[in-house]
């Protein structure tokens, strides 16, 4: 960015700063799994046994296919082949297509997509639920 009269903007960096990976048990993928804020670098650095994938808005590309693909690419660069469980909060077309098209790669990388088999009923509302034991 050039600096001149009236132009004192500093360049913004969106790169993740260098450093070792962080290991967590459970991670909620930020911003409804939108690709504007989550990329391969996120999954290279933030390593978890469980990732929660939210988002149910195809118009906003949530969840994003690019984010799901980034998980595969980032996990492929981990030194270990620890099991990762992906927990979608909604049944979406994007998730179903990604699951079917990348199932073999998911198996190679030891990634499991958890489907909800339980339903919680609260007052007049019911929704799918998953039990996670850490």
Task: Please describe what this structure looks like.
The chain has 134 residues and is an alpha/beta fold. The protein has one domain (22-121). Helices cover 27% and strands 25% of the residues. The chain has five helices and six strands; from the N terminus they run βααβαβααβββ. It has a four-stranded parallel beta sheet with strand order 1-2-3-4. Strands 5-6 form a two-stranded antiparallel ribbon. Strand 2, helix 3 and strand 3 (84-88) form a beta-alpha-beta unit. The termini are far apart. It comes from Balaeniceps rex (Shoebill). InterPro entries: MAP1 (IPR026074). GO terms for molecular function: actin binding; microtubule binding. This is MAP1B protein.
Topology:
Blueprint: E1 22-28, H1 30-33, H2 40-45, E2 46-53, H3 65-75, E3 84-88, H4 93-101, H5 103-108, E4 111-113, E5 118-122, E6 125-129
Parallel strand pairs: 1-2, 2-3, 3-4
Antiparallel strand pairs: 5-6
GO molecular function: actin binding; microtubule binding
Protein name: MAP1B protein
């Amino acid at each position: 960015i050039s600096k001149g009269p009236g132009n004192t903007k500093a360049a913004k960096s969106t790169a993740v700063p260098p450093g070792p990976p962080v290991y967590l048990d459970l991670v909620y993928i930020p911003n409804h799994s939108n690709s504007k804020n989550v990329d391969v670098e996120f999954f290279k650095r933030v390593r978890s046994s469980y990732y929660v994938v939210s988002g149910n808005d195809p118009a906003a590309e949530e969840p994003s296919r690019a984010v799901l693909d980034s998980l595969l690419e980032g996990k492929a660069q981990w030194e270990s082949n620890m099991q990762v469980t992906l927990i979608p909060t909604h049944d979406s077309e994007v998730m179903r297509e990604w699951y079917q098209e990348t199932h073999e790669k998911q198996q190679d990388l030891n990634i499991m997509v958890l489907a909800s088999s339980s339903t919680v009923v609260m007052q007049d509302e019911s929704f799918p639920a998953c039990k996670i034991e850490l």
